[in-house]
């Protein structure tokens, strides 16, 4: 098994990936995935006696999956329940097969996947391209074929491949090999990569290669439960948008990391801002919070159908930051129906202020109807510019639709 995986990696390095059927077009990857992910909120909590409700074990994922199903999240599109690091035994079994921790997952992951599937949900898993995962658990190098087939046999629907304890010089070949083995299983499995995250931030990243292999990819530091972390990610994506935008399309999405809405740090306005900008970016919408303690206003943000529709728009376009000064950023995303979503974001932290968008920045002329996607109301028609009061660290998000002159039936 080790020799087979190594030979495939070397073959891809020397011969290229042509003919290996590395990336195929699939309907299930056409829009960014939505769901729930353990890591930001629960990390690697293993003490189930001290933290029975927070430790990484099967009941945590079953409870959160049940909430997705019962509280309307799944109906809105949040169908993935993803396990991150720290789920396995520290050693493979005698056959070299990964084994879920026997105390924390006593029935194994096939049983957990069946539970999710019975709820109409999907189960995701985590592994790493290196010798060990980031938390020191068994990883995939030299075990790619066995691990991908094991995951498929368990009924896994998404695999996150991390990049700790590995060699970045082999990232291209390694990620291609892993995707090849996913395809060989015959199961539809969403492939989430960390490839660009581990590459230098001061150099262009090989998004053309990444987009050919990965269904989605992280490109920056892990999000932390703070507004400053969210802002750092927003600014990074805006500063590097010209590198990324040409390669974002259905089946190839940039992942700015998890949603913090429902966790500890973000205010209501900041939560609205993260959700708005993530939808403009065509980002995966992966909640990392306790769904059992979600406040009504947090749930209302996450279940906003009109903003979810922006994120899930069939064009699959990543939006663009078209304006930035010390107080304001303006982000725009083209939509399949010919309209556009516009997010006016305040970076002030003191007072609400009026902020405007010049239609010249949007490359549009004429009259456009504006609908406020948080207030869920039509605002009227505008020409030349749009102006709104924006709260500190907040956002006003509108959908602009070209206004058409209505002709009376008497003149038809």
From TrEMBL:
GO terms for cellular component: cytoplasm. GO terms for molecular function: alpha-galactosidase activity. Its EC number is 3.2.1.-. The keyword Signal applies. InterPro entries: Aldolase_TIM, GH, Glyco_hydro_27, Glyco_hydro_27/36_CS, Glyco_hydro_b, Melibiase_C. Keywords: Disulfide bond, Glycosidase, Hydrolase, Signal. This is Alpha-galactosidase.
């Amino acid at each position: 098994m080790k020799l087979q995986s190594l030979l495939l990696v070397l073959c891809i390095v020397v011969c290229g990936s042509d003919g290996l059927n590395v990336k195929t077009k699939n309907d299930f990857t056409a829009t960014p995935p939505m769901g729930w992910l353990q890591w930001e909120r629960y990390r690697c909590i293993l003490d189930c006696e001290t933290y029975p409700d927070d430790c990484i074990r099967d009941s945590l994922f079953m409870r959160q999956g049940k909430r997705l199903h019962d509280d309307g999240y799944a109906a809105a599109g949040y169908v993935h329940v993803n396990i991150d690091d720290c789920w396995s035994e520290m050693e493979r079994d005698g056959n070299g097969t990964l084994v879920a921790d026997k105390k924390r997952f006593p029935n194994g992951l096939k049983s957990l996947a069946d539970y999710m599937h019975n709820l109409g949900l999907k189960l995701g898993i985590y592994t790493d391209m290196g010798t060990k995962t980031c938390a020191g658990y068994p990883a995939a190098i030299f075990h790619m074929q066995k691990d991908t087939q094991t995951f498929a046999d368990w009924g896994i629907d998404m695999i996150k491949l991390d990049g700790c304890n590995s060699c970045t010089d082999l990232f291209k070949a390694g990620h291609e090999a892993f995707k090849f083995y996913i395809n060989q299983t015959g199961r539809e499995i969403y492939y989430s990569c960390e490839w660009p995250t581990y590459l230098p931030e001061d150099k262009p990243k090989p998004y053309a290669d990444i987009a050919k292999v990965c269904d989605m990819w992280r490109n920056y530091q892990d999000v932390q439960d703070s507004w400053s972390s969210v802002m750092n990610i927003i600014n990074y994506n805006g500063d590097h948008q010209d590198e990324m935008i040409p390669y974002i399309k259905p089946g190839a999405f940039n992942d700015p990391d998890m949603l913090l809405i429902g966790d500890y740090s973000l205010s209501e306005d900041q939560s609205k801002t993260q959700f708005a900008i993530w939808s403009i970016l065509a980002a995966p919408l992966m909640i990392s919070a306790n769904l059992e303690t979600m406040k009504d206003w947090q749930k209302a943000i996450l279940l906003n159908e009109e903003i979810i529709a922006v994120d899930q728009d069939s064009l699959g376009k990543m939006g663009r930051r078209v304006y930035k000064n010390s107080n304001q950023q303006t982000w725009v995303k083209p939509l399949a129906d010919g309209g556009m979503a516009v997010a006016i974001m305040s970076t002030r932290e003191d007072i609400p202020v009026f902020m405007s968008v010049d239609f010249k920045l949007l490359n549009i002329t004429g009259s456009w109807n504006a609908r406020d996607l948080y207030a869920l109301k039509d605002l009227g028609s505008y020409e030349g510019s749009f102006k709104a009061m924006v709260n500190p660290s907040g956002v006003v998000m509108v959908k602009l639709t070209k206004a058409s002159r209505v002709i009376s039936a008497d003149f038809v």
